[in-house]
Amino acid sequence: MNNDHFSEAVCVELGNYVYRLIDPRNGETFYVGKGKGNRVFSHVSAALDLDENEDETSAKIGRIHEIRRCGLDVLHVIHRHGIPDSSVFEVEAALMDAYSGLSNIAGGHGSNDRGPMHADQIVDKYDLPTIDLEPKHRLVLINVNKFEASGKDELYQQVRFAWRISSSRAEKADYVLAVVRGVVVGAFQAKYWKAATKENFPEIPFEEPKRHAFSGCPAPEKIWDLYCGTRGKRIVQDELKHVQNPIRYWKV
């Protein structure tokens, strides 16, 4: 039986819950969310009314359309229910941290700050030197969730595209800082920001015309040392820490 809604009585019993959407073709969890009532079913019903290429939730919507084209239904799993209001964000974030490759646009609540880290990352997070409270430059801070760079060029490719950002505001910045879990690991100089299309950036893997990317180069060595040091420098100001939005501005 394929349920597409809960009765009112079930909704009352569920309260706050955290759920997973699963692809029946391979058993893979592709989306994690939280909600009440019939929230868990809303993604599929919304996808049926949307074009599969819509930008806002393209990865999730595209996956749902692929499943439907195979004549199958998305599997809905209530992972934990009856969660107090004060805990639902943390439960959702912990579940998101446990599954890789999700189609969620935003990360889990506090995941960038308190999510999974190995011991060396914990030491870096709390033992590395901090950035001066009042930098001399105008900065854009971009959070890089999956830090896989082994050098400046690789890190540059990770941080340069594609972001929901005000290009006019970003262009006022002197430098772009790459941030991983509250630690600045790279500094770059942007020559220009443009829409993330193949026309503007032939090398990008796919187009995202409603997002922007920059072309530039690593910052001068003295700037890199100022903001990154040898192994990175910590951001201690709460207002500059990345929660949901991966973009932060400092003096811009």
Outline the structure in words.
- By secondary structure, this protein is an alpha+beta fold.
- It is built from nine helices and nine strands.
- About 2% of the residues have low confidence.
- Strands 4, 5, 6, 7, 8 and 9 form a six-stranded mixed β-sheet that branches. A three-stranded antiparallel β-sheet has the order 2-1-3.
- The chain is globular.
- A hairpin with a 4-residue loop joins strand 1 and strand 2.
- The chain has two domains: 102 residues, GIY-YIG endonuclease, CATH 3.40.1440; 132 residues, no CATH class.
Layout of helices and strands, plus pairs?
Blueprint: H1 8-14, E1 17-23, E2 28-35, H2 39-47, H3 58-69, E3 75-81, H4 88-98, H5 111-114, H6 119-127, E4 139-143, H7 152-159, H8 167-170, E5 175-180, E6 183-196, E7 208-218, H9 221-227, E8 233-234, E9 247-250
Parallel strand pairs: 4-5
Antiparallel strand pairs: 1-2, 1-3, 4-9, 5-6, 6-7, 6-8
Please outline what is shown here.
This protein has 252 residues and is α+β, with helices and mostly antiparallel strands. It has helices at 8-14, 39-47, 58-69, 88-98, 111-114, 119-127, 152-159, 167-170, 221-227, and strands at residues 17-23, 28-35, 75-81, 139-143, 175-180, 183-196, 208-218, 233-234, 247-250. 28% of the residues lie in helices and 25% in strands.
